[in-house]
C-alpha cells in the first residue's frame, strides 16, 4: 500500500521534476542561474495581486480545455480534438454576441454559452459516434477535425464574418453588454475563471458521485469488465465525447466573451494541447487540474516578462510544456513491473 | 496555368510529404503511429540549412538532417517502447518540445525570431542535364528533378518488395500486426519498433531538408506548416501501402499546387487547405464501415 502511494506520487512529480531539470540544463547552457530564473518566474507570476490576476487570467482557458481532455482520457478515449471544439464553440458564441440585438442585454449570456456548448457537443459527437459505431480511430479523426476547425473558422473570419471596420482576420467586437465582467478591473481576469472553477468542481462531482461518471472511469480501467457488468461502452464513449465538447465549447465562449471580445485567427494559441498537458500533469484529478492550469498560466504570463527583462527566449515555456507531456505519459512503474515479470518467467 | 507548371510544382511539393509518409507508413506497419513527424521534419530543415551553409555540400546537409532526425526518432521511440508512454500524447509533446528547442536556439544563438538566413546555403541540384527541358509536357518536370525527389520515388517503388519479400520487411509487419507472435518466435520486437521509428525519423529529416533546400535556402519556424500531419493523413489514406500512399501524397501535392491558383480564381484558400484532412476523415469512415460490414457477413 505504502509503495503504491509512493509510486503514485512519483508519477505525479516525475514530469515536473524532469521538466525542471531539462529547463534548468537549458538555462545553465546559456549561462543563466536556473534558481534565479525560477524565482523570477515565481515573483513575476505570484508576486502581487496584479500578477496573480494575470496568472489566473492566463490559466482560465486551460481550466476548460484540461477538464474537457480529462473527461475523455479517464475513459481511455484519446480525444485530442478539444482544440477544435474550443475554436468552433468560441466562434459560435462570438457570432451570436455581435449579431443578436444588443437590447437583449443579459439574455445574451445564456444564449451565447448555450450555442457554444451545443456546437462543441456536435463537433465532438461526430468522432464519438464514429468510434462507438464503426471503431474509427478517435485520435486521427479528432486530430483531423482540429485542422478542419482551424480552416473553417479561419475562412469565416477572413470572409463572411470579417469585421468591416478593422483590417484582417478578426470579426467585429461583441456587444458590450455581452462582455463577461472583469473581476479585478485593470487586469483581464474575468468571470470566465469562476465558470472554469465551477466546471472543474462539477467534473469532480461527476467523477465521484454520478453513475455516468463512475461508468466513464470504469471503461477507462477495464472495458471487458465494464461490458460484463452491463455498462454500454459505446453509449459511454459517445457520452464523454459530448461532455468534452460541451466543456470545450463553453471554454471557447468564456474566452471569446471575457478575454478577446471577438474572434480572430489566433484565437487559441494551442489551449487544447496545453490543456492536455495540464490534464496529464494533474492525472485527471480536479485539484491536480486547477494546480496544473495555474502552473501553465504562470509560465505563460511570466514568460513574456522574463523574455523582456532577462532576455531568455519565451520558447522555454514550450520546452517545459513538451517535456511535461512526454514524461507525464511515461510509466516508470510498469518498467520495473515488466522486469520482475521477466525474471519470474525466466526463473 | 500551364500543364507543365502544374506538373513541376506538384512534383516538388509532393516530395516532402512523400518522404515523411514513407517513414510514417513503415513505422505504422511496425505498430507505432508517429504523430511526431512534424517535429522531425522541422529539426531536419534546421540542421540542413546550418550544415549546408557550413559545409557547402547539399549531400552532407541532407545526411546530417536525416541522421539527426533519426536520433530524435530513436529517443522518442524509447519513451514509447521502453517507458510505455502513450504514443499519441508523447508525439504531440515531441512536436511542442522540438518547436520550443528550435525557437530557443534561433533567438538565443542566432538572435533572430522566426526565420534563419545563413550565408551561402547550397540548394539541391537538378539531376538531369538541361536538354531534358526540351521534351514537351514532362520536360520541365524532368529537368527540375532533385536527388531527394528521385530517392523518394525509388524508395516508394522498392518498398512493396522490401515489405513483402525480405526478412526485415516481414519482421516489421509481424511486429505491428502480431507482437505476441514476434516475441514468441524470439524476435526483439521492441528493437524492431525502435529501428522503424528511427527510420521514420531519417525520412522525416530528409523531408525537412527538402523543404529547406529545394528552393528556399532558409529555415522558418512555420516551414513545415502541418506537412507532417498531411503525411500522416497520406499513409492513413493509403492504408500503409507504399504505392497507394504515394498516390495520396501526389494528390495532396497537387492540391497544394492548385491552392494558389484557385485562390486567384476566387476560391477561399483556407477551405481548400482543409481538403486533405477532410478526405482522411471520409476515408477512415469508409474503410471502417466497410470492415464492419465484412465482419458482419
From TrEMBL, chain A:
* GO CC, alphabetical: plasma membrane
Recorded GO MF terms: transmembrane transporter activity
InterPro entries to which the protein is assigned, alphabetical: ABC_transp_permease (IPR001851)
State which residue ranges cross the membrane.
Answer: 12-31, 51-73, 80-100, 106-126, 138-157, 189-207, 228-254, 266-282, 289-310, 316-333
Please report the record's description of how this protein sits within the membrane. Answer: Multi-pass membrane protein
Predominant subcellular localization, coarse grouping: membrane
Localization, per the record, is: Cell membrane
Q: Which UniProt key words apply to this protein? A: Cell membrane, Membrane, Transmembrane, Transmembrane helix
Q: Which residues form a coiled coil?
A: none
Query: What's the name of the protein?
Result: Branched-chain amino acid transport system / permease component
Source species: Planktotalea frisia
Lineage of origin: Bacteria, Pseudomonadati, Pseudomonadota, Alphaproteobacteria, Rhodobacterales
Amino acid at each position: 500500500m505504502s509503495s503504491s502511494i509512493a509510486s503514485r506520487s512519483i508519477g505525479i512529480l516525475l514530469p515536473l521534476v524532469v521538466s525542471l531539470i531539462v529547463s534548468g540544463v537549458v538555462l545553465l547552457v546559456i549561462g543563466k542561474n536556473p534558481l534565479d530564473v525560477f524565482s523570477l518566474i515565481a515573483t513575476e507570476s505570484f508576486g502581487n495581486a496584479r500578477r496573480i490576476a494575470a496568472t489566473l487570467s492566463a490559466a482560465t482557458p486551460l481550466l476548460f480545455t484540461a477538464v474537457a481532455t480529462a473527461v475523455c482520457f479517464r475513459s481511455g478515449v484519446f480525444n485530442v480534438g478539444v482544440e477544435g471544439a474550443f475554436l468552433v464553440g468560441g466562434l459560435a458564441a462570438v457570432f451570436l454576441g455581435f449579431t443578436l440585438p444588443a437590447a437583449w442585454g443579459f439574455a445574451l449570456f445564456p444564449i451565447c454559452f448555450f450555442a457554444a456548448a451545443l456546437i462543441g457537443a456536435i463537433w465532438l459527437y461526430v468522432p464519438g459516434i464514429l468510434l462507438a459505431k464503426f471503431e474509427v480511430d478517435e485520435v486521427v479523426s479528432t486530430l483531423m477535425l482540429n485542422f478542419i476547425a482551424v480552416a473553417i473558422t479561419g475562412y469565416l473570419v477572413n470572409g463572411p464574418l470579417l469585421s468591416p471596420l478593422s483590417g484582417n482576420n478578426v470579426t467585429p467586437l461583441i456587444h458590450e453588454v455581452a462582455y463577461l465582467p472583469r473581476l479585478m478591473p485593470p487586469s483581464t481576469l474575468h468571470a470566465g475563471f469562476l465558470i472554469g472553477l465551477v466546471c472543474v468542481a462539477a467534473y469532480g462531482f461527476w467523477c465521484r458521485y454520478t453513475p455516468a461518471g463512475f461508468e466513464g472511469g470504469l471503461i477507462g480501467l477495464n472495458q471487458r469488465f465494464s461490458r460484463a457488468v452491463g455498462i454500454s461502452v459505446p453509449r459511454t464513449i459517445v457520452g464523454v465525447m459530448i461532455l468534452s465538447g460541451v466543456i470545450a465549447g463553453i471554454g471557447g465562449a468564456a474566452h471569446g466573451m471575457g478575454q478577446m471580445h471577438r474572434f480572430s485567427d489566433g484565437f487559441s494559441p494551442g489551449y487544447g494541447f496545453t490543456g492536455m498537458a495540464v490534464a496529464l500533469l494533474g492525472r485527471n484529478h480536479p485539484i491536480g487540474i486547477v494546480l496544473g492550469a495555474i502552473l501553465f498560466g504562470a509560465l505563460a504570463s511570466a514568460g513574456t516578462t522574463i523574455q523582456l527583462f532577462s532576455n531568455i527566449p519565451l520558447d522555454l515555456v514550450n520546452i517545459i510544456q513538451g517535456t511535461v507531456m512526454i514524461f507525464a505519459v511515461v510509466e516508470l512503474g510498469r518498467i520495473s513491473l515488466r522486469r520482475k515479470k521477466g525474471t519470474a518467467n525466466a526463473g | 496555368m500551364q500543364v507543365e507548371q502544374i506538373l513541376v510544382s506538384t512534383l516538388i511539393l509532393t516530395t516532402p510529404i512523400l518522404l515523411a509518409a514513407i517513414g510514417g507508413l513503415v513505422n505504422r506497419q511496425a505498430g507505432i503511429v508517429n504523430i511526431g513527424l512534424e517535429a522531425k521534419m522541422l529539426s531536419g530543415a534546421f540542421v540542413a540549412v546550418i550544415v549546408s551553409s557550413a559545409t557547402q555540400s547539399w549531400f552532407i546537409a541532407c545526411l546530417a538532417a536525416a541522421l539527426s532526425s533519426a536520433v530524435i526518432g530513436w529517443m522518442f521511440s524509447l519513451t514509447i517502447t521502453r517507458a510505455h508512454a502513450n504514443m499519441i500524447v508523447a508525439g504531440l509533446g515531441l512536436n511542442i518540445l522540438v518547436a520550443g528547442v528550435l525557437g530557443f536556439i534561433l533567438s538565443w544563438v542566432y538572435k533572430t525570431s522566426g526565420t534563419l538566413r545563413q550565408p551561402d546555403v547550397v540548394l539541391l541540384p537538378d539531376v538531369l542535364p538541361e536538354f531534358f527541358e526540351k521534351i514537351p509536357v514532362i520536360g520541365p518536370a524532368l529537368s527540375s528533378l532533385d536527388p531527394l525527389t528521385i530517392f523518394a520515388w525509388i524508395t516508394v517503388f522498392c518498398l512493396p518488395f522490401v515489405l513483402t519479400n525480405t526478412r526485415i520487411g516481414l519482421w516489421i509487419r509481424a511486429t505491428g500486426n502480431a507482437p505476441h507472435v514476434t516475441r514468441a518466435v524470439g524476435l526483439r520486437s521492441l528493437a524492431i519498433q525502435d529501428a522503424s521509428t528511427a527510420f521514420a525519423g531519417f525520412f522525416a529529416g530528409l523531408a525537412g531538408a527538402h523543404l529547406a533546400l529545394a528552393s528556399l535556402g532558409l529555415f522558418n519556424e512555420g516551414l513545415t506548416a502541418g506537412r507532417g500531419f498531411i503525411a500522416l493523413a497520406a499513409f492513413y489514406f493509403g492504408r500503409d501501402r507504399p504505392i497507394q500512399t504515394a498516390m495520396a501524397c501526389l494528390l495532396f501535392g497537387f492540391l497544394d499546387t492548385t491552392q494558389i491558383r484557385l485562390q486567384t480564381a476566387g476560391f477561399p484558400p483556407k477551405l481548400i487547405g482543409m481538403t486533405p484532412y477532410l478526405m482522411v476523415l471520409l476515408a477512415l469512415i469508409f474503410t471502417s464501415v466497410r470492415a464492419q460490414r465484412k465482419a458482419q457477413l
